[in-house]
Amino acid sequence: MAAYYINRNGELKLSLFCNNPKKARSNRGTCGAKTRKSTACKAPPVWDKAYDKPRNGRCKLHGGLSTGAKTEAGREAIRASNRRRAKKHHSISGEQAL
Questions:
Q1: The model's pTM
Q2: Which residues contact 89 (CB under 8 A, 6 or more apart)?
Q3: What backbone torsions phi and psi does residue 4 show, to the nearest 5 degrees?
């Protein structure tokens, strides 16, 4: 792709072998997820530098980084953690454990 650009000396140059120009941070948008105050999140989305686009449009706090466990071993580890947490919660609050 050919592109025109202005170099440091202020001269207009033509580059025949260049990649698409990268998006400026100010033009990347915002997360937009609903916060606890019922307003839109203003954080920038997680950015994929290789493709120069957001990964899924959400920031790191609203689901932009982790996509969850992929393997059965990872899913079982999450289940075990949830069971331990539930057992601890029920013993503290005095409720009957399941």
A1: 0.45
A2: none
A3: -95, 140
- Does the residue 98 lie in any domain? no
Q: What is the pLDDT of residues 28-65, one digit of tens each?
A: 889 988 888 999 999 999 888 888 888 888 888 888 66
Range of the domain at 62: 3-80
Residue 57's contacts (CB-CB under 8 Å, 6 or more residues apart) are 29, 31, 32, 45, 64
Which residues on adjacent β-strands are paired with residue 42?
A: none
| Within a domain: 95 | no
Confidence label for 75 from pLDDT (cuts 50, 70 and 90): very high
Asked whether residue 76 is assigned to any structural domain, the reply reads yes
Count of structural domains within the chain: 1
Q: Beta strands 53-54 and 47-48: pairing type?
A: antiparallel
